[in-house]
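Sample intake sheet
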Amino acid sequence: MKVKGMITAMVTPFDGQQRINRQATKQLVDKLILKGVDGIFILGTNGEFHVMTDDEKVEFAQVVVKAVDKRVPVYAGTGGNSTTQVVELSKRMETTGVDALSVITPFLVPIKQSELVEHYKRIAANVNLPVLLYNIPKNTGINIEPESVQELAKVDNIIGIKDSSGDIHNLEAYVHLSRGMNFSVLSGSDSLILKALQAGAAGAIAATSNLLADIDIAIYRYFMEGNLESAQKKQGEIEALRAVLKLGTVPSMIKRAVTLAGIDVGAARYPVSKTTPEIDEKIKKMLAYYQLRHSG
């Protein structure tokens, strides 16, 4: 499969007891697909994979796959620190009907690049679904070096990488070294969507599209049409949201914004705290800027 376009790094909706909210999940999925996103990416950083059990991840994937109903591809995160555990979860995830797996690098212990390559090769050899690498060194402490991506791109079912390094030169190197292979480089840094596309990226996996799908999709479509001026204008339009996202711990701000805009996706799981009334006022001002209705 070819990974391309504007894909939403979707939040995981929780209810008041911090359990999976099936109704809100369907509402959000339907809204995103109606807007025209090219895929749904679940159980990433903004999807709070790090505070969910494997059972919950499988349950959530089942809920999302049912809601999506084959309208767009679903990418599900199964990454972790243990190669064996990642393989086990990935095999369970395959039974849910997701289209591909996203595997973040191990974190906490800074393993060598050779160990990282072997980690991914073992996972790919033991699963049937396509695998998308996920690079977010600021959070994990490990960068997947371009030479490692070049090696992994040769593996049949490793089909791409989500690069959230925030380093456009890193992404450019991925594009350069995987050129001619069946491999997609995608921006995971929302501020660099247009620059990534100009560097040869196939698309983006964007958390801002939970709220601003129209704008993010427009960046991609204007770029594909060759209208760089309009694409740049749209890229700049997401900055008001990005400024608000910096006011709290991921993903508290984006979840609160989506809730105040009309779909109650609940708060982030503890230990991330709920937003304060003062922060809520700033979120509401941001929503008013985008002409998005807010509750309360």
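Comment: The beta strands are 5-9, 39-42, 74-77, 100-104, 131-135, 158-163, 184-187, 203-206. The first helix runs from residue 22 to 35.
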